[in-house]
Amino acid sequence: MQGQFTIPAMTELAAALGVTIDDPAPPREIHFSRAGCRLHGFDWGGTGPPVLLLHGGALTAHTWDFVCLGLRGAARLIALDLRGHGESGWSGDYRVGALAADVVAAADHLGFDRVQLVGMSLGGVVAAHVADERPGRVERLALIDVAPGVDFDSTWRVRTFISGLGPVRDLETVVEAAMRVNPRAHRPSVAYRMSTLFRRAPGGGWVPKGDPRPPDFPAILAAIDRLPAQLSRTPVLLVRGGRSRVLPQAAAERLVAHVPDGELVVVPDAGHNVQEDNPAALITALHAFLTRRPSHRWISNHAPDTGPESRKENQRMSARTLELTTIPSVEVGMLIRRPAREVFQAIVDPAVTSKIWYTRSSGKMVPGAELTWEWEMYGASTRASVDEVEENRRIRFTWGNYTPDAPTTVEFRFIPMPDDTTYVQVTESGFTGTGDELVRYVTDSTGGFTFLISALKALLEHDVVLGLVADAHPGGLPG
User: What pTM was computed for the model?
Assistant: First the structure.
């Protein structure tokens, strides 16, 4: 590998990731100061409403490069380096309030009275603080993969990697180390990211740009817990990476449920760094949110009741005006009175699973497996890609059971309970389609997985094969 290492060009990598680029010109750098701290950002230009983009911890404004290339025609885009990151200066004050004040200073420096904010992880926490403290300055807010209930423990490998960064002779060393932390990562994207996190040292080699002092994680987690109270006056879009281990689907849904004007979008084929993993899909979600006209969340339809025909018409109108304010997802669960290892094996082993779910599988559920599952009684089959398997704890896969071109993500969790019992939780997210299609998909999935875990309970607890999936749609039914 030595001597073959190259840093991909920004526009070439963005195009390879599916981004449509109308204007490939690089952004203009901006510089300003607040409270003695030198601050930096990139102005991508544009004539639309001003949007400030805030990166996550240990990243830089460059994390938004691909998104800005595809979104610059819809808004005036400004990507900021938070203090202690990128080309901004280091400081003795990294409190969320100080970072938020820097964002307001950036808006003032650029002459923006009102802005829209997009914040990923730590940047989302900062953006929410701005919206809460200066509601008159923030029109709407998009949060990327952050909400109360984040799985902080899942980030330990990345945190360990980041805390170990130091001067290196060549960037390839850092890229190799990053790929060992996440072997499934897109190597060109990792190489590009690392090239933005380091700068050339005067004596040769490379040194990290960011302040090496560790963040105050307890303070950041406490700030995340305050998000629901801070978002009560601002329209909010929450974007979750479909493969994110940091933000569970249930946590994302809870936050949106607490926000008066909130919606949730799950971006497939993306982990925590949604903006780098699947920028094209994020651009689509952000474009729709940032350019929509203000609207009321609830639609009232109080036509006078003039008899049965009027009531029928009102019912038809209600169906036409019914709106989904979040993309629905599936979550079902059940206690099974067997140890987690036994329940886990029953799902990964086709010899067992074929008794209660599909009738044939091309293999076991192991990481990286590309499987075909068949339901021979219905003449149906689907493909499944196994993303992650944690023995006796978790299985995650994607499949195109409803929309083959836009796979959904399914996750089984096996939660140990007292007396050697196990709570099995199944979630499915990432549905796409019209409102009617989404309702149909979620209803069908909820029923299907309820049948599955009910049959699993009967098999493992009572050695009874119920055949619920096969009997749900028997042949010969009228209509």
Answer: 0.64
Q: Which domains does the chain have, with CATH numbers?
A: 13-290 (3.40.50.1820), 330-471 (3.30.530.20)
The DSSP bridge pattern shows strands 50-54 and 408-417 to be unpaired
**If we measure between CA atoms, which residue out of 197, 205, 254 comes closest to residue 225?**
254
Contact 5, 64 (CB under 8 A): no
CA separation for the pair 228, 409 (Å, rounded) = 26
Q: How many Å apart are CA 104 and CA 78, to the nearest integer? A: 13
What residue type is assigned to position 137 of the chain? R
DSSP state string for 44-104? EE-SSSEEEEE--TT--GGGGHHHHHHHTTTSEEEEEE-TTSTTSPP-S---HHHHHHHHH
Q: What is the DSSP string of 440-477?
A: HHHHHHHHHHHHHHHHHHHHHHH-----HHHHTS-TT-
Tens of pLDDT, residues 186-244: 899 999 999 999 999 998 899 999 999 989 999 999 999 999 999 988 999 999 999 99
Contact in structure between 382 and 399 (CB atoms under 8 Å): yes
Q: In what order do the strands lie in the sheet with 262-267?
A: 28-34, 37-45, 76-81, 50-54, 115-120, 138-144, 236-241, 262-267
- With 0-12 / 13-18 / 19 or more C-beta atoms within 10 angstroms meaning exposed / middle / buried, residue 210 is buried
Q: How far apart are CA 261 and CA 294, in angstroms?
A: 11
Please answer whether residues 77 and 44 qualify as being in contact, where contact means their C-beta atoms are separated by less than 8 angstroms. Answer: yes
Tokens of 257: 């449920």
Instruction: Name the 3-class secondary structure at 383.
Output: strand
- Assigned token pair, 247: 């933000």
Task: Tell me the pLDDT tens digit for each residue of 102-141.
Answer: 999 999 999 999 999 999 999 999 999 999 999 889 999 9
Q: DSSP label at 168?
A: B
Instruction: Work out whether strand 394-399 and strand 380-390 pair parallel, antiparallel, or are unpaired.
Output: antiparallel
For the chain, counts of helices (H) and of strands (E): 17, 17
